[in-house]
Design brief:
Order of helices and strands of chain A: EHEHEHEEHEEEHEHHHHEEEEEEEEH
Number of strands of chain A: 17
Structural class of chain A: alpha/beta
Strand content of chain A: 25-35%
Helix content of chain A: 25-40%
CATH architecture of the largest domain in chain A: Alpha-Beta Complex
Number of helices of chain A: 10
Radius of gyration of chain A: 21 Å
CATH class of the largest domain in chain A: Alpha Beta
Mean pLDDT of chain A: 95
CATH superfamily of the largest domain in chain A: Spore Coat Polysaccharide Biosynthesis Protein SpsA, Chain A
Largest sheet of chain A: 5 strands, mixed, barrel
Oligomer: homodimer
CATH topology of the largest domain in chain A: Spore Coat Polysaccharide Biosynthesis Protein SpsA, Chain A
Low-confidence stretches of chain A: none
Shape of chain A: globular
Chain lengths: 362, 362
């Protein structure tokens, strides 16, 4: 049974909200955010003991494939599946499903992210094992995170009745998916105890997700069938390219999950998970000193300074703060960001402006 | 008469509050704060049309003399007077007085600063002319600045009765000198209309200031007499060195002005003067954009940012701010300061800490 469990890492994203450290040519999963290893490498490392490298697949875009292969040489080259262009997650899942179906008709796949952070790896493995069991019983399983604060940065899943438990991990029906809420709504969701953050990680049988696509996304399904027929021929790449041209950009949440039946959610509270979706989110992930300051890769001297992030690039420059709080300072060498913590999400607007200006720093 | 008017620029100071741009080996007067010319050069330029270079004297310390000479080659070399070590302004004035007395027994001297800013140079010249006239009548004249906000960063002069006017410039008795006040006291002084900021600039007859020193600072006076006797011998430098060892560090305000009679003050309101004594003071001096931001020597992109100073070093680095206000960002290349505007004075503590640590950046 276990040998039909596969991991699929979606590694094609851009990610603009960690600018100036992430860039167009150095997307978030390629960033060494915490030191030596990139977020992609950390995402692969995290699977050790759960999946052998032969059962780890990576879906990415051509521009990133070479570097990702170099970063994870233990993963067989043919396990890197290339999208001609990024079309959001529904097509990624579809393409991976086709690849896995060719490899093992009984495949059960965990759809995982390349640029998130998980502190508690043991717990992550327990959660995956439970999810594979539930998926084996015919559920589309989403991994939820019990909120520990009223985040406006995450989507939410409405959890329904408990439908079972696996080694103490409770499984619920999923009632629906919610977009990122505003502040007021986030507080309500946080208070109600019936909502989990949507981690963007899923587990399901490959044949079952393909059936759902046939039902809900017939255009994508038809394309995938064309690709499947040419999979073991030298027309595979050409066929993918043609199919991809006509695809709509849509997420798996919208395209499939919202309209699917038999959706289960497993909400866990102690995973130490973060999507590292903004500089502010680093406060969930990196340890702070006694003043609440997070100092990373920087020579730092702070007077009357608190609850601030100082993120350097190990270049020996001294960064001094005086009387600041709730501030984010990111020094990427050629660009410096100074940002109020609660404005972290707006970094995306900075990148859009820079791209519009044709800046080499975007 | 005019040929007995001399300018003495005091250029020996250190100045730690413009760190990281000013340093131990690049004191404030050596800083190109506004572009091409250093504050010292700007202080010399300001005298053009008022004093020919032969009547401009500079008192400085040995470490700085070579650079200052290079920066003002038009001033004759022998007009640079060297202190063996800085002993505050009373001894500077005393030494300059001796030098001027040798040059011209009728000398009247304007004691000027090397590291302040004056926007309205024409007004400055009018003020000096009036001050020379008043000094010629036997007054020790201090140049006062009518406050335009309740500053806690300046000392104050209590102005008394009007004793005359020269071309519309009113002259008052000075009743007393006040230290930098706290916020409450500064508001009272600002409201009362009888107080002027102490600019640290003075005008007086050389023989008169020497008589005051003989009366109030006999130890300094005795030393100055020894130096005077050796002035035109090859023992001059050696004598200055010996005298300087025993001198007390004391300002001319404390040492002479507070106890002097016949002190006059000329308070002016439209000089555009600033002592440039902190990063915050640059808001009095440099023009701000429509958001109240001052951007100097920096590639800058600001979103929702206001009333902030971004001071770069023309190195092409992009500085982006997001959601900040009342912030000071100074990028000196090897060191970066991010400081709440109202904490500007505390920069001095940063420098003290760095010196204690033996940092090469102090």
């Amino acid at each position: 049974m276990y040998e039909s469990y596969f991991a699929v890492i979606m590694a094609g994203g851009g990610g603009t909200r960690l600018w100036p450290v992430s860039r167009q040519e150095r997307p978030k999963q390629m960033v060494r955010l915490f030191g030596e290893r990139t977020l992609f490498q950390i995402s692969v490392d995290r699977l050790e003991g759960m999946f052998p490298p032969e059962r780890i697949f990576v879906v990415t875009v051509e521009e990133q494939a070479r570097q990702l292969r170099k970063q994870a040489p233990e993963i067989p080259e043919q396990n890197f599946i290339l999208e001609p262009s990024p079309k959001n997650t529904a097509s990624v899942v579809g393409l991976a499903a086709v690849a896995l179906q060719k490899r093992d008709p009984n495949a059960v796949m965990a759809v995982l992210t390349a640029d998130h952070y998980i502190a508690n790896i043991e717990r992550f493995h327990q959660l995956l094992r439970a999810a594979f069991q539930v998926a084996g019983e015919g559920f589309l399983v989403t991994l939820g995170i019990k909120p520990n604060f009223p985040s406006t940065g995450y989507g939410y899943i409405h959890t329904g009745n408990e439908i079972g438990a696996y080694q103490g991990i409770r499984v619920h029906n999923a009632r629906g998916f919610l977009e990122k809420p505003d502040e007021q709504r986030a507080k309500e969701l946080f208070a109600s105890d019936s909502y989990a953050w949507n981690s963007g990680m899923f587990v399901w049988k490959v044949d079952q997700i393909i059936v759902e696509m046939a039902r809900q996304m017939p255009h994508l399904y038809t394309g995938l069938q064309m690709i499947s027929r040419k999979w073991n021929t030298d027309e595979r790449a050409e066929t993918i390219r043609k199919v991809w041209e006509g695809l709509e950009r849509i997420s798996i949440d919208y395209g499939v999950m919202e309209g699917a039946e038999n959706v289960a959610v497993i909400p866990v509270s102690d995973l130490g998970w973060s999507d590292v979706g903004s500089w502010e989110s680093l406060f969930e992930v990196l340890p702070a000193d006694e003043h609440g300051n997070i100092i990373h890769q920087a020579e730092f001297l702070g007077l009357d300074s608190q609850n601030s992030l100082v993120y350097g690039n190990n270049d020996g420059r001294l960064i001094v703060t005086l009387g600041v709080e709730d501030l984010v300072i990111v020094d990427a060498g050629d660009a410096l960001l100074v940002c109020r913590k609660e404005h972290s999400q707006q970094v995306r607007e900075v990148v859009q402006l820079l791209r519009k200006q044709g800046s080499r720093l975007a």
